[in-house]
Amino acid sequence: MKMGSASATMGGSKRRMSSSSRGFGGVLREQRARLYIIRRCVVMLLCWHD
């Protein structure tokens, strides 16, 4: 259920064309930032206890 909403948000961010106008470096930096956020969320979900 969580993965569906994550893919929907990623699809929504692809509609902006500002990242493609910055060139390959901007796209690469954006992808690295996105992966960092996803990694942090996964770590929080795995380490979260009641």
UniProtKB/TrEMBL annotation:
Annotated compartments: Cell membrane
Gene Ontology BP terms: negative regulation of cell population proliferation; shoot system development
Region of interest (Disordered), ranges: 1-23
Biased composition (Polar residues): 1-10
Membrane topology designation: Single-pass membrane protein
Chief subcellular location: membrane
One family name in Pfam for this protein: DVL
One Gene Ontology cellular component annotation held by this UniProt entry: plasma membrane
Keyword Transmembrane helix part of the UniProt annotation: yes
Record keywords, A-Z: Cell membrane, Developmental protein, Membrane, Transmembrane, Transmembrane helix
Family per record: Belongs to the DVL/RTFL small polypeptides family.
Protein name listed in UniProt: Small polypeptide DEVIL 4
Species assigned in the record: Arachis duranensis (Wild peanut)
The gene coding this protein: LOC107468001
